[in-house]
Write a structure and sequence with these properties.
Helix 3 links the parallel strand 5 and strand 6. The protein has eight helices and six strands, in the order E-E-E-H-E-H-E-H-E-H-H-H-H-H.
Length: about 220
């Protein structure tokens, strides 16, 4: 396994009738780390600085749960249901032991995965999350819901939800925002190069009806 956060191709694997989208990169040895994302987050919402840092000495697996972004199926409306999808996905990959990194809602799911399949999990990293029934976990301020449910989130929503309202933290958040769009920028440049080649090789009439499919 090689590649990086921005170069690993998106793959799919089927389990129990659901097609799960995922990306693998990092080393070929060591216990794989499966990353579980926050509410409404997917493969492209991780910080490459974090994932590539882990990938220097571990196999990394980024994963979209059922019904999220490029994965098929219907999204579960319970943490327990989301955890069952994680277990189905990991089993489909043929893995017998993993580490989990759960962020925010992903941390809820990670805890439930441990409860459901303790022998599958070696270690867990819980980031920006908490236990069921923990202090402050039963409700959120209306402002949080307002920022978290925007149809197309913008940087202001992102900064409010994940970074403190001070100059240092907001600057770090903006740097993260730029990094997380690096893959999309790379794919966009690659598409233009390929489209340009195709435009030179095919008759003009063949160019416009259909663009070539690209992995993202």
């Amino acid at each position: 396994m090689t590649n990086t956060h921005n170069t690993a191709r998106t793959q799919c694997i089927n389990a129990n009738g659901v097609s799960y989208a995922y990306r693998c990169f990092g080393t070929t040895s060591g216990t794989p780390v499966v990353f579980l994302q926050h509410f409404r987050g997917g493969l492209d919402n991780w910080d490459p600085k974090v994932t590539d840092g882990f990938a220097t000495d571990r196999p990394i697996i980024l994963f979209n749960n059922a019904g999220v972004e490029s994965s098929g199926g219907e999204p579960s409306n319970t943490v327990s249901g989301m955890a069952k999808h994680v277990v189905a996905f990991v089993n489909a990959l043929g893995l017998t032991q993993i580490d989990l990194l759960g962020f925010s809602l992903g941390g809820f799911v990670a805890q439930e995965v441990v409860l459901q399949t303790p022998d599958l999990i070696r270690r867990v990293i819980l980031a920006g999350t908490g236990p069921q029934g923990g202090e402050g976990m039963d409700s959120f301020k209306p402002k949080v819901a307002e920022h978290a449910t925007q149809e197309t989130p913008v940087v202001e929503n992102f900064l409010y939800l994940f970074f403190a309202p001070n100059e240092t933290s907001q600057a770090a958040g903006r740097a993260f925002w730029e990094r997380r769009h690096g893959r999309a920028d790379r794919v966009s440049r690659l598409r233009w190069r390929l489209w340009g080649r195709r435009q030179m090789l095919l008759p003009a009439g063949a160019w416009f009806p259909k663009r070539p499919a690209m992995d993202n």
